[in-house]
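Fig. S4 source data, part A: sequence.
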Amino acid sequence: MKITLIRKDRESGKEALSVCDTDTLFEKITTETKSGYITALREFLPTLEGTNARYGRIDKLPRIYPAVEYTRTKEGERRMKRYNGLVQIEVNKLAGLSEVEFVKRQAALLPQTFAAFCGSGGRSAKIWVRFSLPDDGKLPVKEKEAALFHAHAYRLAVKCYQPILPFDIALKEPALTQSCRMTLDEHPYYNPNAVAFCLEQPFAMPGEETFRQRKQEGKNPLSRLKPGYETAETFTMIYEAALGRALHELENWQRGDDLQPLLVHLAEHCYKAGIPEEEAVRQTLIHYYRQSDEQLIRLTLHNLYQECKGFGKKNSLNKEQETAFLLEEFMSRRYEFRYNAVLDDLEHRQRDSIHFYFKPVDKRVRNSISINALREGIRVWDRDVDRFLTSDYVPFYNPVEEYLYDVGQWDGKDRIRALANLVPCNNPHWRELFYRWFLSMVANWMQRDKQHGNSTSPLLVSAQGYRKSTFCRILLPPELRFGYTDSIDFKSKQEAERYLGRFFLINIDEFDQINVNQQVFLKHLLQKPVANLRKPYGNSIQEIRRYTSFIGTSNQKDLLTDPSGSRRFICIEVTAPIETNVTINYKQLYAQAMNALHKGERYWLNDEDEAILKQANREFEQASPLEQLFHCYFHSTDVEGEGEWLTAMQILNYLQTKTKDKLAINKVGQFGRALQKLNIPCKKSYKGTLYHLEKLG
């Protein structure tokens, strides 16, 4: 594995890039160069605290980039050559080398620790954690995929290492450019054979904790033995309250003073609060492990526990803390809550065997929860329940991401093209065009490309009774069918844009009923990646994530009105009734799409596909009266010496002489686009665009 070192001169801005393998790097770390810059830095740091001064020779220490092996382009720009799968987490503001050594020892307990060493300042510890994809230790190749993988890996590393460290991990932005200065550590922990954490390739940056993640965390086994059983988290909360009371009683006691007086007060409060002796010892060792040995703490607390009376008779929590704790325990024991990010609504179900489905939390439900809490003796107000339900105690739930997460491995059978085959038609390109559109729909749900939405829409055209709308509906699995609608009002533009974040698939039924202006707005919606709207009763404009893909049906063929052609629609004439009475394995259908996207398969239409669309859509384009009038009196010619070169205005003036109706001059630009769509030979001149035409008759 190659590690990149970059030294940048602050004054000139020049970078010196070098690469070495990890074995060589850790050999360098164990001994300092003759210049002694690292030792000098550690000597100067105490004098620099509280000032804006900086160590003058800090630029002499190169930065180490564990995550990425960089190289230079021909233009001298930095470029990622290879992703290493190493995540760096840091523990800063340590008291000295003794605490650094303790952190290193703790990190070495996990087999995924690739390295742990002292930071350049001597008061921090750097931990490198190894990650890989499940596929035989492979790693992402593309920089964009590596960035997504690295962000999720960093999050997992923090969650796994924080419980074994008595100090807080310094949270940093999980970028590929995370680095640290060259350092000195005579005995770094280095394990080149570290076992990698396996992580699936993610499709989006990590957000807030989701409903799935909250459930996967699991509860303490004690909480499943008996409803309301005090968990380790409960003991921690009560212990902190007892410690606070003990510190308040001692007033002037500070960390570093004799621990004995504090233990006397602390043991009494822990005993009366009902904290078991071993739990009190454990919590005390976590807080004050540096100030006394374990045996002394155990003996002191044990003796005081023997002397005290009234175990568990006095709660160290005040009334507000007790109410908040009891409400949290009641809510988690009796109900399951989640916030549906698509429906923008709170959902719940009761934790018993007869309630299987989540339902919206309306006013009646809120009142019932309050009454049930009061009946259990918990003194809460309606506002207390509302505060809980509108807090981060309720995890976010994204139904489409949850569904796609659970589809499993694809079995290799092509189901997307088989779904397209249900539509009988004479277009030989339909299967492939539908396949790309379907992948784009799923990619849009996963927000693979935040700059573009699914900008293509199939249009199924046939006589009535061919089950076109039914086919559109069965594209979504039953679990996601709440995100389907065949009713959208293009007259209300704000409401139509709001639909982009509310529905997964919108069927534009009776597409031929949409007028010209509405088709222009529809094309705007098709290519819109997000919607910027003010929510009802909101004060600020918010960016709403787009989920929607479009599909349409019609009984008429002359659908498209754009004079420049339509590459946003896949128009298909259905030649027979669609077979919709079929069994669809939705899990495998969407597993195929997820597998294709994971492998980086193209989900957008390329230039060749768009050329096919333009050619196939011509029979569905609506010719305006002006175009029909044009064909009555002109035809194009490629022969030099024949016909004449005319501007769009000259053509319009000539047609005006052939009809009694007045032709609007403001239609000249639109008429010009129609002429270009007809592939009439043209050229540019000082008069404007000239078209080579021959008059008929």
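Fig. S4 source data, part B ends here. The two ends are 80 Å apart (CA to CA).
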